[in-house]
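Ticket 4471: requesting a sanity check on a complex prediction with NAP. Repro inputs:
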Amino acid sequence: MIQVAVLGYGTVGSGVVEVIEKNKEEINKKSGEELNIKYILDLRDFPGDPYENKIVHDVNEVLEDPEVAIVCETMGGLGAAYEFTRRALLSGKSVCTSNKELVAAHGPELIRIAHDNKCNYLFEASVGGGIPIIRPLNYSLTAEKIDAITGILNGTTNYILSKMEKEGADFADVLALAQEKGYAEKNPAADVEGHDACRKIAILSSLMSGKNVRSEEIYTEGITKITAADFVYAHAMGKTIKLLAKSMEQEGRFYAMVAPFLISREHPLYMVNGVFNAVCVHGNMLGDSMYYGRGAGKLPTASAVVSDVVDCARHIGKVIMCFWDAQNVELTGIDEAKRSFFVRVDAKKEREAIETFKSVRVIEADVPGEFAFVTDVMSEKEFNRKAGEVGIISRVRMEE
Ligand code: NAP
Ligand code: HSE
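Returned structure tokens:
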């Protein structure tokens, strides 16, 4: 029997316990041995919960028990989660996590500690919730040189944007709904300001390059400035707005960014709605491939954590390779990146905008008092200069 501990009995942690219990036959068969949840660590008590007798409050009980072979870290954050993970790995216990903040900040160090101690640090649930994306990058696409990844990597913001678009719902109301459903981070600013998607693209970019892409260096914009009027224009153009996380390696330069983009109906990510996420991966031999599924929520995320538990159970005492070196990748800033932009200005600035941006495609929509247009392709730097000169209401980048 393999003893498992769960650290953090919240949305994901309780899902892990539920998945292991509900699918125990399949999971035990695939693990090659029976899994047993020996401890659940949390700050609170859970009176009446069927697993009440497994709840502990002292992490030492878990970490000092030599029987525990696999630990699921579903607490989140960097403080205690980092300390408990390090200690577990140093004592040879594999750790499976959904905590992308920790993976993005300390991934290479924790992977190295795991391997030095003949155990594993696995993080399938850290990107794309229940979507298998870490394992494809680590195991399935090993014959590829991956040169681009573009994804919708945050369930909460995709849920909000979809509801705003399809139901004209209010931003704050939909965010509250996403929180109720357990999609949002403890501090939902991480979702709506794009930081969560940024951490996820940092993880994917690190696996793509084999080196460390620092999330702090990725240009990040969230969805807080997107309004109902932007969707009116998007419809007029036959497009929608999605929060995209992108990274690309071109001629030795590495680019990464997170921002809302206008995408057309033909784009593979156009139909990804609600809490669903999707990741498009481009490899030099395979070309395009795409991974799709529920990007947040209790059971989909827990399923991904438990898939890692099964992998750890199959590899007790053995290292599962993961190429993520501590050496930092130098990112190229976005100033020189070229694209066209959708721009809204006050109707009084129509002439000035046309004189400044020269060739523009005017977008007609039922938004009073405004003049809206799409620019030619230009660099971010040139756009920012011209937008500053005119004084715009807002802009959204156009995805090719
Ligand atoms: P959550 O519902 O807040 O659960 C976290 C649990 O851990 C809470 O019960 C919390 O207790 C407990 N905890 C926090 N610090 C602790 C400590 N020092 N010792 C013991 N217990 C502690 O959060 P969640 O949504 O499950 O998310 C957990 C992690 O998974 C986060 O890193 C999140 O980003 C990630 N994730 C979440 C989802 C999702 O859909 N929810 C999807 C993918 C990844 P208190 O409530 O008392 O603080
Ligand atoms: N808050 C995250 C999201 C959870 O909405 O995508 C999944 O990582």
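Notes from triage: The mean pLDDT is 97. Leaving this open until the requester confirms.
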